[in-house]
Amino acid sequence: MKATSALLIVIVLTGVSCRQQPAPAAFGPSAVPVSVAPVTQESVPTDLQVVGTVEASAIVQIKSQVAGELTKVYFTEGTTVKQGDPLFDIDERPYQDALRQAEAAVERDRAQIAQAEAMLDRDRAQAGFAEGDAARQAELNKAGLTPHSTFDQAQATATQSRASNRADEASIETSKAALASDQAAVETAKLNLSFCRISAPLAGRTGNLLVHPGNLVKVNDVALVVIHRIEPIFVDFSVPEEHLNAIRRLNASHPLPVKVQPRDGPPGAATGALSVIDNTVDSTTGAIHLKATFANADGLLWPGQFVNVTLTLDTRRDAALVPSEAVQSGQTGSFVYAVKNDKTVEIRPVVTGRAFENKMVIEKGVAPGDTVVTDGQMRLYPGAKIIAVGAPKPATQAQ
Questions:
Q1: pLDDT tens profile 9-20
Q2: Structural domain tally of the chain?
């Protein structure tokens, strides 16, 4: 009796278990959710990216052209000055005295010239009388009406008068030469006096004040301050010599654009143009030195700063691009998962070109209009069914 009851319980439980089992799956493997993107066709610039340094377009060491005491400073260290702005004053009193002395010497020379010209006029009058008397005495002596001594005296007087005239003329020339020399001394004194006010020879930014008021300065001695012109400004950089011919050829038709971005500075980029190609290749590095010019009106670039330089050589039009994350690496090279019309994927080996922003140029393997998988490749295999979903959002930190 107990055995029969147990057997009935097992049969009942077996029936219940069979009724609770699900039916076999009627569908194949489920579709894999992935992110996709189309292959686009864009114009891609051919860029060379290197590191460069910023250099002032002009550097001037301000030195004194006269000796004396530094009496005044007009600018504040580290500020921008315009061309012609006053920078320093040197004690001008000794140079004012020198100018007055030179001007007095000029007046003396002019007075001496006037005196010599007056003497010349007097001596010319006397010489005219002596010449006339000598002529009369010659006629009288020829007629035997005057003694030879009187004739000789008249001739000697005329000769002496002519000599006096020549001496007066020489004195005038000497005084004129002295006048010219003293006038030059006046100009020199005026120039030295003007050097007592030192002005900015160009617009730029001043550095630290190197000599303070009260100190004595010498002619062309130590620099008083250094000015850097930063508008415009230069960026120096080097590229491999293999690009030299292309750079020369393209730059001959139009200045090549150059974009720079400070490495550790404020965000932003400056755009300029290639201005100098060095005349020799560095044999030790195999690089050619280049220089680009930037307006730098916003003051983004600073002398001595390191910057990331992008030199654009040319623009490739109608290039095929895919998002960089679509390109995968395999044992045989790079590949992408291309989406077919039936929503399955296939592996496409690709030949990649250069990176452009967050995309990759594809030289061979896909064409504009194709669709590639950009996220979720780890779950894919050739022929896998996919379903396109939005790109995953980046994880945010807990607040």
A1: 443 344 444 444
A2: 4
